[in-house]
Amino acid sequence: MIVALETRGVVKQFGGLVAVNNVDLVVPENSIFSVIGPNGAGKTTFYNCITGFYTPEKGDVLFYGESLLGLSPDQITYHGIARTYQNIRLFSTMSAIENIMVGEHSRLNASWAEAIIRTPRMVKEEKAAVEEARRLLNFVGLAGLGDQAARNLPYGAQRRLEIARALASKPKLLLLDEPTAGMNPNETAEMVAFVHRLRDELGISILLIEHDMRMVMGVSDRIAVLDYGEKIAEGSPTEIQNNPRVIEAYLGKPMSEYEA
Amino acid sequence: MKTQLKSSLNAGITFGIVSLFLYLIGFTTTASQIIQNLLKLKPASTVLGMDSLTFSFALFIGLIGLWAGVNQARSQKGQPFGTVLLSAVLTGLVHGLIVALAAYITGSLNASGVKMNTYLSQLLPASVKLFLFNQTPVLGALSQLAFLTLTALVGAAVTYGLMVSNVFGKLADAWRSMWKQVNAVPAIAKFRASPYFSYVMYSLLLLVMVFVPLRAGQYWNYTLGTVGIYVLLGLGLNIVVGLAGLLNLGYVAFFAIGAYTVALLTSPAPHGLVWNFWLVLPLGILAATLVGVLLVVPVLRMRGDYLAIVTLGFGEIIRILSKSDALTWLTGGPKGVNNVGGPVLFGWVFDDVSYLYLIFLSVLLAIFVTRRLQNSRVGRAWESMREDETVSRAMGINILKHKVLAFAIGAAFAGLGGVLFAARNQFTGPEDHNMMVSINVLSAVIVGGMGSIPGVIAGAFVLKGLPEILRELENYRVLAFATLLVVMMLVRPAGILPASRRKFEHENAPGNEGSKQ
Amino acid sequence: MATESKVNKKKVSTYQIVQIILGVVFGGYVVWRLYQILIANPVYGPDTWLRFAIAGIILGSVYALVAIGYTLVYGILHMINFAHGDIMMIGAFGGYFVFEALKNIQTPTLADPKLNFLNAHPVISVILAFVVGVSVAALSGYFLERIAYRPLRNAPRLVPLISAIGASIFLENAAMLMFGAQRRDFTNPLVLTRGEGWEIPVGGGTVILTYTGVLTFVLSIVILVLLYLLVQRTRMGRAMRAVAENKNVAALMGINVDGIISQTFILSGGLAGAAGVMWGIHLGLVYYFLGFIPGIKAFTSAVLGGIGNLPGAMLGGLFLGAVESLGPAVLGIDFQLKDVLAFGILVLVLIFRPTGILGEVLSEEKV
């Protein structure tokens, strides 16, 4: 098994509050791994530790065996990690295609001087970038909407555009932060299928934060549960469903009931 | 009914305050004089039993009264005629009462010999009298009241008629359908969408740029040159503020560095270095760029508002330093530097026409560079930073590097502007570089439309060109810009000519023009 | 179960190295200058130093008042109220016109047939000047927010800032057009004649503790204490802090957010107005551009103390006043350049400690 991402004893504190406490995770390549937990369990903070917005006080984050500690968020993107946001954060006045092209930034090389002179290499690169952006638009099912301003797109399309933007950097690992927030059951089902497609067609590993239990149980290969910053359980969806500590953490109700 | 009463009262008070304000800043008198000139009335002549200035004043204040009525009728859209008229009368009455009260108080003070202009400098006896239609305080105040009420009534009645008959709506529809038909002609639509359209437009512009300087005369060449330099500055600031979203309020500092570089290196005093202009030109640009980079590196880790204040402070530091006695040996002190050397090309000493060409050339260069950068990886990175810095970092964009780059290019344009400005005027001094320059350029960028090149050009013309045409309004220029800044932000934050997005999918491009922020 | 996790040492970046070098160079220079000027060859006697210090603290107390206004508004709206300095100017004009009007009211007595109200009742006059100055400024603050800021509450960050800049220029120019461009003498009652005060002998010379200075300082401190109590102890203060923390949640708790924001602007406008009247009484000149430089300096003070932090703004103001007054002598630079010093300090603070001396009170999440 090739390990895509591994965290070893990651600790992140804010003043006296321990937001993430000693979390170990192993995300195998080409798998869908979910992190769940009640509100304020430290899931998003954990994401920020991986993507370089926070530096953990203790522990290490390894990406294909290489430590990401001390790298800035933009450098981490170069290593092949991309993410989406819980509350959609597109570049709202830019068009859909431009959003994706910003995502391609880390793969392009043209400097400001080349941009002014328009070297043949730069022109070629730009052309390829537009092509690739169109292809990604098609892939996420937004063909023909490329010139729309991002904020004029409907909600579901914005979610998919955000994923397309993340994919544009050709990541090896994709971090999705509640991709089905605010979606109805139909849209959620579509999203589940879409996440599977991402893994199967593009061969990338996916780390998912999710609230929607239906989605998590349906899509994940493996699940870790965070509560008050600590990992209280890890296992396959069935194991998690029957884990008493998880049930306790989620309002003390049995998981099956919660799910329904 | 109660809400209508409240809205009438509110509108009346607002208009009253506006009229009062215009009176206190002396605008009523200035406007009357402008109207008098526009109508080509001789000062001695009389119209409708009034002398011509009073008549012009009546026209002016009448227009405000009409506007109050129109405004009221529009806000009461859909109400019966009686209600509209009633509310307009009420508005007019309140408006008139405030104005009449002010007219009466100032008028009687004036009549009793109090010199109000020691405190309120615009209330000269003549202005006060004019505000009373050149009548006694009581009579004048009453006429104001009656006149403003009447005009509000008329304005409302006419507006009501127009609204009911929907004349404007029909006209607008006709215009729109005509425009649609024009665009429906395939050839025209294709032409407008094709790159040739912009080529044709730019060639037309180029023709104007080549021929105007030859015919315009020295004064207009000078003015156009100033506008051109402001376009240059605006284009630079447009990269910093409009594209990268970094608010720089000390932009004038880079302009000053360019100007001082050329001044100190080509003027016989104070250093006696009379270098060649063409050598100093790149040096000026380089110096401004370098300082821009040095300034911005420590500041860039801060959030936007801090940057605004630090740059503002930096602009002031440069100005204070340039005029301080302690540094007179270096900068020429408060008196500035005279006899700045200009360019000579193959023995041809530059005159006003060739300077204008040089400025136009620089502007074209700046437009070229801006356009190329805007439509590249760098430009996209800037815009994404402006939209959301955090996400932009997560996209792999090195924020610091791109901010420094934006600042450096902006500073380079400003440095170039400074070099040209000092060389053309053959002078530079501390007062050429006060904060108002930064504010003017910023206003040009914002009023024109952030991120939009035609917007910057339009903005520079509005800010530097219009005041030259409306010389009488000189005193009110800055006030008008300030008002314009606020109003633009409230009504149309994207500017007069908002940036249009580049289209990538010609076959399927639903309208996305005029994007509002 | 959990693996042995290593503690991550913070890496020292080049930026921090530059910081340290700059700090050492600058600190070393200050220490060297202090040694030079105090021990090696003292230019000034203790009386002069005391004079500088007093002047600085008085000035600083005015900065503190204005800085509080910036901090209050920043705490709630996260925007720099650029026009705040101009509100101070409006307050100064308010006080000026009160004094001018009272000067023209004759209250002749047998002893002095030329006595006017201003000199006959100086206490009432000063109170009146403050009441009018504060009210006018508070009212301007209220309307400023209603007209120029409120409609932009949810706009992108640059938009209200530009609107604020526009409002600032508008106020300056409106004042210039109405009142003229010249500097006007702020005539005080005779008992408050500028430059007069208690004379204190200090090592060889005398230091004058001016009446106007003492009035300014004492009044500022009283206002600052009252303000602190208002924000910490009253219902309104609690509501203000709640809105600063999170507008949406505050609204859910039944707080009228718009009302609180209005009140904040009225409060900060009033403080600036009081500062303006003090400025006039103590320094003696009013003109349309009066608010600009103190405004920027007060903002610097607010940043120094950590913007959004009330005690920080007070300390920052006093500190900046002292630096401005003592700094040129200590550092050996021209007194003309004291404004440069203030801006220089701002830049230094932002480089070394962007959150200010006492730390910024930030409620918004940074990531």
Describe this structure in words.
The complex is a heterotrimer of chains A (260), B (517) and C (367). Chain A is an alpha/beta fold and 260 residues long. Chain A is built from 11 helices and 10 strands. In chain A, a hairpin with a 2-residue loop joins strand 9 and strand 10. Chain B has 2 domains: 2-165, no CATH class; 199-507, Orthogonal Bundle (ABC transporter involved in vitamin B12 uptake, BtuC), CATH 1.10.3470. Chain B has helices at residues 2-24, 27-38, 52-75, 81-111, 125-131, 137-165, 167-184, 186-193, 195-216, 218-243, 252-266, 277-299, 304-323, 328-331, 352-374, 377-387, 389-394, 399-425, 435-448, 453-469, 477-491; strands at 46-47, 50-51, 337-338, 344-345, 348-349, 427-428. In chain B, strands 1-2 form a two-stranded antiparallel sheet. In chain B, strands 3-6 form a two-stranded antiparallel sheet. Chain C has 367 residues and is mainly alpha-helical. Chain C has a domain at 60-313. Helix content of chain C is 68%, strand content 4%. Chain C is built from 13 helices and 4 strands. The chains are: A alpha/beta (260), B mainly alpha (517), C mainly alpha (367).
Q: Write down the CATH class of the largest domain in chain B.
A: Mainly Alpha
Inertia-based shape of chain B? globular
Q: What is the helix content of chain C?
A: 55-70%
Order of neighbouring strands in the sheet with most strands of chain B: 1-2
Strand content of chain B: under 5%
Number of helical stretches of at least 4 residues of chain B:
21
Features:
heterotrimer, A: 260 residues, alpha/beta, six-stranded mixed β-sheet, four-stranded antiparallel β-sheet, 11 helices, 40% helix, globular, C: 367 residues, mainly alpha, two-stranded antiparallel sheet, 13 helices, disordered C terminus
Quick structural overview:
The complex is a heterotrimer of chains A (260), B (517) and C (367). With 517 residues, chain B is mainly alpha-helical. Chain B has helices spanning 2-24, 27-38, 52-75, 81-111, 125-131, 137-165, 167-184, 186-193, 195-216, 218-243, 252-266, 277-299, 304-323, 328-331, 352-374, 377-387, 389-394, 399-425, 435-448, 453-469, 477-491; strands spanning 46-47, 50-51, 337-338, 344-345, 348-349, 427-428.
